[in-house]
Amino acid sequence: MLALVVEDEPLAARRLTSLLQKHAAPLTLLGPAESVAQAVALLQAGPAPDVLFLDIHLADGLSFELFEQVEIKCPVIFTTAYDQYALRAFKVNSVDYLLKPIDEEELCTALARLRQRLPAANDQDFSTKGSVSSTKAEAENVAVPTLDAATLTALIQQLRQPAPVASYKAQFVVRVGEHLKVVPVEQVAYFFSLEKTTLLQSTDGRKYVVDYTMEHLESLLDPTQFFRLNRAYLARQAAIHDIIHYTNSRLQTILKPAPPESEGPILVSREKVSVFKSWLDR
């Protein structure tokens, strides 16, 4: 089988591709694609994949934009960090997903069921945008649905709506020596990745290690207050002290407190500039 992995988190992409490559019947891999634009280019160039592993939040927008730009005729399995609001949307619409970090056994089960369905699926018309592998549904003897236009529209609407305020994280428990400290989210300036570690930068200039990936944090925090500037930085608007035009249509952000000098300029990629401006100008 030929698989296309669409994932903008390098660690998550490496883990998934590694698991796929060491599977008993290894898949031939396309990508990974890190953005909607890259995924569209790969899908248009061909060959067509047999299965699509699709993250939701990509560098330049929601992965659902793929369905608006190119016809997808293969089964789709969404990959997502734990997010109660997103999972409710998947379950309500009977859409299959794998939770990150992806469990090898669950991935093998999904692939086994997918292989069983592919011979019959080759004679079907996956017209609107493909059928969806649903290992949980099959395990419960429920008919596997197709990802038709109505299902896709409902899913997009639910996931684009703001999650209930109560679902956003209010504070973080961090370790300071032998002690535990509670940091209210109002005291968080930004989060950043450094040498495979995620750190919380507080407004009073202190740094704390947190046991979350950047992607998981993005799903836990109020999107009206925090923005993913790039792979390494997730910042509160109040911490963005200045914004400067940079080369190649990018933007440079000046954060307060200042990040480590060794990290270089904190840039907003060209693909995210328009979304970033809309976020600021709401």
Structure explained in plain terms:
This is Response regulator transcription factor. One of its GO terms (molecular function) is phosphorelay response regulator activity. The protein has 282 residues and is α/β, with parallel strands linked by helices. It folds into 2 domains: 2-160, Response regulator (Rossmann fold, 3-Layer(aba) Sandwich), CATH 3.40.50.2300; 166-280, LytTr DNA-binding domain (OB fold (Dihydrolipoamide Acetyltransferase, E2P), Beta Barrel), CATH 2.40.50. Helices cover 30% and strands 28% of the residues. The chain has helices at 10-21, 36-45, 65-69, 84-92, 104-121, 135-139, 149-160, 214-220, 273-280; strands at 2-6, 28-33, 51-55, 57-58, 61-62, 76-80, 97-99, 171-176, 179-184, 188-194, 197-202, 207-210, 226-228, 233-236, 240-245, 251-255, 266-268. The strands form 5 sheets. It has a 5-stranded parallel β-sheet, with helices on both faces. A 5-stranded antiparallel β-sheet has the order 12-11-10-14-13, with helices on one face. A 3-stranded antiparallel β-sheet has the order 15-16-17, with no helix packed on it. A hairpin with a 2-residue loop joins β4 and β5 (61-62). It is globular and about 55 Å long. The N and C termini lie far apart (44 Å). Residues 120-146 have low confidence and may be disordered.
What is the compact description of this entry?
The modification 4-aspartylphosphate is found at residue 55. Keywords: DNA-binding, Phosphoprotein. The chain is α/β, with parallel strands linked by helices and 282 residues long.
